[in-house]
Amino acid sequence: MRRRPDVLAVTHEERYDLLVVGGGPAGLAAVDEAARLGLHVGLVDERPTLGGQIYKQPGLVVRDHRALGRDHLRGRRLIERAQGSGARLLLSTSCVSLRGTTAVLVEDGGVARTVTARDVLLAPGAHDRPVVFPGWTLPGVLTAGAAQTIVKTQRVAPGKRVLFAGSGPLALAFPAQLHHYGVNVVEALEAGPPPGPRDLLRLSVAARGNAPLLRDAIGYRTELLRARVPLRYRRIIVRAEGRERVERVVHATVDADWRVLPGTEQSVDVDTLCVGYGFFPSVELMRVAGCDLRYDENLGGPVVVVDEWLRTTVPGISAAGDGTGIAGSYVAEDEGRLAVLGIAGDEERARTVRRRLAAKRRFQHALLRVHRIGAGIYELATADTVVCRCEEVTLAELERAIEATADINVVKGFTRVTMGLCQGRNCQRQVAALIAARHGGRIADLPFATARSPVRPVPIGAVADESVEDQGLFVAD
After folding, report:
1. What digits encode the pLDDT tens for the residues 289-343?
2. How many other CB atoms are found less than 10 A from the CB of residue 22?
3. Could you tell me if 426 and 62 are in contact, meaning their C-beta atoms sit under 8 angstroms apart?
4. What domains lie within the chain, and their CATH numbers?
């Protein structure tokens, strides 16, 4: 091939007033708002159904949507409005590259094609925060998102004895939701501290405009109390143990920075460990497009820089939802609407949305002390722990490479770390933390591995054209 490696072969150009990437709360709300304004909209999502992670739809016929709870009903309303909006819904389709307001899309089983738009709204959401500890690769160790997929879409319990370990609102919400669906949750662990009197006072001050959030929190806590599921604070997973799958987990007390206190370890027999220490924003497209990012560990790490209208530093590209910082589905919906109102210049309607967002952000700030991420989350691995699952690179191998360099791209060349199917989503932050610890400094100050297209794994046949010559290299097994 003689062309630049970041340029993909594409066909079949389409044009829209607005291209929305992501079919979760932010993207769905944006489509709803854009329909009201009469815009010609295309909505891209790599899943076969709308809803994103939080509003993920069951893979079964649902006769009574009310039986699946308030979150499901909220999602159904947004999905139905999007389906009736007139927008073109491009499902099972990945946006694998973005240059200005021209996107490269690959539909499942198809070839790459270009889509151009006057404006692009990136609402790619987030993915589970990977936590590396001995045994994290054992069968039966699931992220919250994976467990949620099994329970929500297939109505299957992930195990017979499930322990949940995590932090933030998820540590309260998810074990309660699992129990509501009939899963036997034996214990729930929260790495952060219990809310104290000052925290409760701050929350009460920030309660105005956040009744749904408070109602949800009270409902989740009540569910756990009624089920007699212990919720233990300042506890973190140390390791998972077992032969063919997880058989027990060991957890321990941590200090304010989530570092394990010696002599506090306890073991629990389980067949499933659900890990939910928050989320990482999916910023791959923002990086490829050249948007400026900033770093805030408590918002998920690298988040895209936006102005008061959620416009990024690249003209024509806006961003909304968890890609701008992990803040939950309520904030994501309002950000999706605000971004479209910014494109339309509708200041009057935007005032109401801004007031709602300001109230939700006050509530989020009030929770910050309780849900602050501790540096100890990156210090749980031992020498033989696999850090990069795709390439099976251990901590010891990484440490030898990091002795010689503080450049993650050089470490990548030495070890192939971040070069697997996940493209660094699981291991890159852990590697950055190891570099920061060995050479000094902060993760926030370290550059990440170079962003490249395609940002999602696709078959070479989807992006190649006749200029690529097969010299016997591409042979089916």
Report:
1. 999 999 988 888 899 999 999 999 999 999 999 988 888 888 999 999 999 999 9
2. 31
3. no
4. 11-127+280-345 (3.50.50.60), 130-277 (3.50.50.60), 381-445 (1.10.10.1100)
